[in-house]
Amino acid sequence: ELNTCLGKRSPFNPAMVWIDAYGNVMICYGIIIGNLHANSLNEIIANYKPNNYPLLEGLAQLGPKYLYKKAKQLTVKLPPAFFDECDVCYQSRVVLRKKYPELFGPDECYPEGLIF
Predict the structure, then answer these.
(1) Among residues 71, 115, 23, which one has the least CA distance to residue 33?
(2) Residue 6 has what DSSP assignment?
(3) Taking the complete model, does pTM exceed 0.85, yes or no?
């Protein structure tokens, strides 16, 4: 189960974490829950709860449509169609990361020009 994507689980029960070169600990590609330069991995994992992070509780409760609604409030520049639920989540995070860079990053996860 350690290779299970967050989309098949939920932010309440992630199966794995990613650690990037900057020390960001992510529960899904581009969703940061802590940084190893500030806290140990044990502390980050022990203190992780979706309701401790802006937007993650809504994502956990309502799925990617929650992030889509939040992104629509900030802009109308979203694709007219999506490939799947992960694409809805990702494309919504592309928009939301400008307001929540501490949660959605780093830049390498969100290259410019991916919104259609």
Answers:
(1) 23
(2) G
(3) no
